[in-house]
TrEMBL record:
Helicase-associated domain mapped to chain residues: 30-98
Protein name stated in the entry: Helicase-associated domain-containing protein
Signal peptide boundaries: none
Superkingdom classification of source: Eukaryota
Organism: Stephanodiscus triporus
Pfam families the record matches: HA
Length: 112
């Protein structure tokens, strides 16, 4: 939620600043996406790649589930359907070498 929308909610600037100082999350879906992306970046730093797929209950299963959702949303976007996967998010994922395809060597969006 941007500052203009927060102001139109009836909150004064002081309350908005106090909430923000405490780390209040205005846009939960965006916050969750960014948190998972940071997890992916940590995965890349640790493993040297962004190739992550769901396996049988592994330590990265929640992250792998999120990665699968990004792949599904990319396909939806390519098909003209509504999705939360923006061009900015695609660029972020590409910046860490995200694997878009079914196979590890399909890391670019051209694979889909």
């Amino acid at each position: 939620m941007d500052r203009l929308m927060r102001r139109s909610s009836g909150m004064n600037e002081k309350r908005i600043l106090l909430l923000e100082a405490e780390g209040f999350v205005w846009d939960k879906p965006d916050h969750v996406w960014e948190s998972r992306f940071q997890e992916l970046r940590a995965f890349v730093a640790l493993n040297g790649h962004a190739v992550i797929y769901q396996r049988k209950l592994g330590p990265y299963d929640p992250l792998a589930g999120w990665a699968s959702m990004q792949r599904r949303n990319y396909i939806k976007r390519q098909n003209g359907q509504h999705t939360t996967l923006t061009e900015d998010r695609i660029e972020k994922l590409n910046s860490v070498g995200f694997a878009w395809g079914k196979y590890a060597n399909e890391s670019s969006t051209d694979a889909l």
